[in-house]
Amino acid sequence: MWLGVSSVGVSNTVDVTYDSKTCKKVPGLVRAQKSVCQKEPETVRVIGEGARMGIYECQEQFQHERWNCTILPDDADVFGKMMKVGTKETAFVYAVTSAGVVHAVTRSCSLGNLSDCTCDSSKKGPINEDGWRWGGCSDDVNYGLKISRDFIDVADSKNSENSREKARSLMNLHNNEVGRQAVESQMQPTCRCHGVSGSCAMKTCWNSMPDFRKVGQYLKKLHKDAVEILPRGKKRLRRKDPKERKVPIKFNEMVHIDESPNYCSSDPDKGIKGTNGRECNKTSNGADGCNLLCCGRGYNTQEVRIVERCDCVFIWCCEVKCKSCETVRDVHTCK
């Protein structure tokens, strides 16, 4: 039930050629994932790149929150013990990592870096009534979706007699798909004009993936409105709210089975680092503000001197001369 793919993203082996030996060294992978690693090493290398994209995007989206997507590179699960609990944050990690794998694999296909895939050849055809035609190299997102499902979902595909474990597996699988759909739903045409003197008498268009930052922002919104589900399950997820129990859960809804802690104080047993020592913004009323981030404990202020280059002048040819400017600013850190 752990997220072994995240370990691929931060593993020391991610920048080398995968083989039977290196595949065994990646922590957190289940047997089926190790088998894929050995049979399709270059694909797993790209999966690792996608996992890293997901981790970095998680840290970007939560950098000012009490939980800031801290990773533990030496742990079998790089997000630590907190992943054992089915919170909204856990849901986001599964979704953004799955999305990262789709994005990385699809991009590699379009660039010709994987031997088993290329562009989406179905997106070609004659000029339509709007004066443009499909052409170029459309991103084959369907291949990316398939690889993501085949590699990631297998970790939660086993049937369990324990109803809570079953509900947690269903939660993970659902959030994996939420991440994949976040990429697919934001695919959009990119077009190039053709014609005399740039008249754009005709356009050739192809389907392109969204920038991954856009995917991360979309998933952050879904995290905010994540749906709490019953912590017991058999074949499908059900909303915890009795009034909405019969309403089907959609793939633009992130789900969780446990309430999130406040992440204020350190709790090693639960994998929570707390916010002690985190830098905060004294003037902000948002999540990065000292009042919220420090959980009412107050903050320390330290004067920091920063020396940086300034007043740079370009001198022909070819030199840039700069002055050294010193600034002083107050840094506030949570008590």
TrEMBL record:
Pfam families, A to Z: wnt
Keyword Kinase: no
Record keyword Disulfide bond present: yes
Secretion signal, residue range per the UniProt entry: none
Descriptive protein name: Protein Wnt
Family the UniProt entry places it in: Belongs to the Wnt family.
InterPro entries hit by this protein: Wnt, Wnt_C, Wnt_CS
Species, as recorded: Himerometra robustipinna
Lineage: superkingdom: Eukaryota
